[in-house]
Amino acid sequence: MNKAFFISFYSFERFKITINPFFWIIIIGAILTGQIVEIITLFAVVIIHEIGHLFTANSYQWKIIEIQLLPFGGMAKVEQITDSIWEEFIVAISGPFQNLMMIIIAITFQKMNLWSKEWTTFFINANVLVGVFNLLPISPLDGSKILKVFFYRYFPFRKALIYSIFISIVLSILFLLLVSGIILGTKININGLILAIFFIYNNLQDFKQVPYLFWNFLIQKLKIKPRRNIQALPIIVHRDTPLIEALQLLRKEKYHLYYLLSDDGEIINVIPEEKLLENIFDNKELYRPIYQIVG
User: Fold this and answer.
1) pLDDT, tens digit, for every residue of 186-214?
2) 3.40.50.300, 3.10.580.10, 3.20.20.70, 3.40.50.720: which CATH number matches 227-294?
3) Residue 208 and residue 294: Cα distance in Å, rounded?
4) Which of 161, 196, 278, 294 has the fewest CB atoms within 10 Å, measured from its CB?
5) How many CA atoms lie within 13 A of 67 on its CB side?
C-alpha cells in the first residue's frame, strides 16, 4: 500500500502526499548503485516541478488533492473548478516551465562562479530529463494533459478523453517494446521497464475512469451558469436520439443549442443544453428519446 502523510504548504489547504510503490523500487536501485546524491537532486527537481503545477492551480482556485511521487517523478492531482481549456493548458505546462527556470538559474549561478561546471551540467541534465520527459503524451505525464487540451478544442469531451487515452496506451506499449530491447535489439533497461509497466497499468485505470470523468463533466456543466453572451455551438440530432447519446456530444468550454430534427429532416425544436442536463440524475430519462423528455 502507498504510505501517505499530510502537510500544509503556504496558502494551500491541507493536501496528501502519496508515495507509489514503484517509486521505492527506483530509490532502492539508486542506493544500491551509489547514486544517492543524484537521486536526492532529482527528487528536489521533481518537487519544484510539481510546485509549479500547484502554484498555478492554486492561482486559479482549483482544489488541490494530493501530490503523488511516481517512478518517473511526481504528479499533482488537482480538481478543476471551471471548464476553462486555457487554465488546464497553463496548469499542465507550468511544471516543465519550472524546469526551464531552474536551467536559467543554474547557468546564471555558473556565470557568477557559484556553481562548478560539472554540477551545473548535472543539474541542467536533471531538469531536461524531468521537463522534456514529462512532455511525452503518455498519461499521467504533462504531455497527455496538453494533448487532451488539443482534443478538447476539436472533439466532444468524451471522445477527447478516449482519443487521448488510446494514443497514450499505444505510446506506452511502444515504450515497453523500446526499453525491453525488442525494437532495437539492445539490453533490457530495468528502470525503463518499470516505467513502461506503470504507464500501461495507469492508462488501463484511466480507461476505467472515463464514465466517472464524463459524469463529473456533466455535473460541472450543470453547475456553470449558461453563457448567453457567447455564440452557441449547434448540435443537430434526430428527435429519437437517447438523452445519453445527445449528452456525449457536449464539448468543454462551449455552450450548445440542440436542434431536433424530424424524420423529414425539418427542425422541430431548439433546446438549450441546460434543459437536457437537468435530467442527468434520472437514470430512466437517460435512455429516453429527447423529444419525450422536453416535449
Assistant:
1) 788 877 888 888 899 989 999 999 999 99
2) 3.10.580.10
3) 32
4) 278
5) 25
pLDDT, tens digit, 9 for 90 and up, residues 49-59: 888 888 898 88
Ramachandran area for residue 265 (φ above 0: left; ψ -120 to 50: alpha; else beta)? left
d(CA 254, CA 250): 8
Terminal CA-CA length for the chain: 52
* Mean pLDDT taken over the chain: 84
Distance of alpha carbon 67 from its chain centroid, rounded? Answer: 13
Place of cell 488546464: 88
User: What phi and psi values does residue 234 have, to the nearest 5 degrees?
Assistant: -75, 140
Element (H, E) at 87: helix 85-111
Name the residue ranges covered by the structural domains of the chain: 1-135, 227-294
pLDDT band at 3 (very low <50, low <70, confident <90, very high): very low
Summarised one tens digit per residue, pLDDT across range 258-279 is 999 999 989 999 999 988 888 8
